[in-house]
Amino acid sequence: MSTVPPHATGPRAASPRTDPSEADVIVVGAGLAGLVATAELVAAGKRVILLDQEPPASLGGQAWWSFGGLFLVDSPEQRRLGVHDSASLARQDWFGTAGFDREEDLWPRRWAEAYLDFAAGEKRAWLHSRGIRFFPVVGWAERGGTTALGPGNSVPRFHIVWGTGPAILAPFIERVREGVRSGLVTALHRRRVDELLTHDGVVVGVRGSILAPSDAPRGAPSSREVVGDFELRASAVIVTSGGIGGNPAHVRAQWPARLGTAPRELLSGVPAHVDGRMLGISEQAGARLINGDRMWHYPEGVGNWDPVWAAHGIRILPGPSSLWLDATGTRLPAPLFPGFDTLGSLEYILRTGYEHSWFVLTQKIIEKEFALSGSEQNPDLTGKNLALLAKRVTKGAPGPVEAFKKHGADFVVADTLPDLLAGMRRLSPDAPLDLAQVEREIRARDRELDNAFTKDAQITAIRQARRYRGDRLIRVASPHRLLDPHTGPLIAVKLHILTRKSLGGIETDLSARALGQDGTPVPGLYAAGEASGFGGGGMHGYRALEGTFLGGCLFSGRTAGRAAAAAL
């Protein structure tokens, strides 16, 4: 069962003891960063108005849908699995991945340093004190594969929260609800902020539209009918409204040339309300937006056969064994193996002139190596169901994975290679898929398994991965021939580009104060979460190490709430 109690779908409307006109702080956005900031303000005894344009059912925003992975450094979970991590190694990986190279990276660099200290320091204890626990096997995301100073995680650091995204939200939702009960919090849904109010250069409140009530379920599109307007004032405003991932036009407009031509077709990994509206509104009030061309999208998206929002896509979280082919049937070069380098793979695929690629694998691989991103795609972890979790180490893929294999439009399942190739051709009639090349790639890869040694870098990487106890136990299948009939059936998956995160945003100092064009704080304005590039206007630089988006919301939301409280 979910860790978020049924009564916590949303804080109730304003307490009769709370006069909205008397708030100390207005928080715009009731996602994870906004909830954390509000919880910190409540702890400091401050009066808060929490605004969100969506219905109460969508409280928690994107975090509710997340797999719940958090980046931790030198944790007990790592040490129990024989992983030797350190703050210095994490810093080497972070900066090698981020690639900071701009004048605008001054504050993002500082935020990266502060976040690394948090992840290697009090982060786990702080979360533990709020009842958050971790699955004992640490995942190894973004494995890199180049040199020690290149991008990627040198060791596993992806800690899955027991209960996934809803469990991360639960303690902060409860603290906000306590604030509602005590009269410190006024929670107003269906309030769309259209303007930040300023007076003599100081942000003093918000003005916006009251949207019609909506019974839309979580994540589904809600009405934009305006039924009124509102104006609220406070000593400070914290913007925690998220990024642009649900707005494909905005994504294409900011698409960087270094990643190739912006895709014509995009699956959406986040609901449509992740629209980026507050970024421009904050800029109009004096905030500086930086690094808008830095973004994090996945090349391993598949269409959701049971969608919640338009163009709803799900990311495959792959182990390292699937054969990755481009739209023509040519294998992606080393080290662009599944799960190694997200943006490197994305860039390569788009430079082929096509927007899709393929995984070719076996039933044995899908059973052990395929996970799907999202709380709803992992009912065992989300519901803390041990009996269901135990099935991950038995024969058969997890239920949601099998459902995609059966119902998903992007999956081809066949007993023979000719039938698999014919199915791939049916799914990509407009691409020059060279079936002879696909067969050559598969057979050549299989020949490399005749010996314990090989020149194939992916096979070497698979064998190396299985030296890690966590991978060997539940994540990486033993090396085998794709055409071994005992490991079948054969499976091909057509992969699409899936939007997810903005890595840039509102520039902030280490107190989460929004900075203006001249580099000085905009009085009264703070920003946190994805709206601030998870801190500073882009603490990830060009690339992420994974597990750092939820963590960035936690850290920046906490920082903003504490800083705003201290300034009052």
From TrEMBL:
Keywords per UniProt: Flavoprotein, Oxidoreductase
Domain FAD-dependent oxidoreductase 2 FAD-binding: 24-550
Record keyword Oxidoreductase present: yes
Tagged with keyword DNA damage: no
Region (Disordered): 1-20
Superkingdom, taxonomy of origin: Bacteria
InterPro entries according to UniProt: FAD-dep_OxRdtase_2_FAD-bd, FAD/NAD-bd_sf, KsdD_DH, Succ_DH/fumarate_Rdtase_cat_sf
Alphabetized PANTHER family for the sequence: 3-KETOSTEROID-DELTA-1-DEHYDROGENASE, KSDD-LIKE STEROID DEHYDROGENASE RV0785
Name listed for the protein in its UniProt record: FAD-binding dehydrogenase
Provenance organism: Cryobacterium algoricola
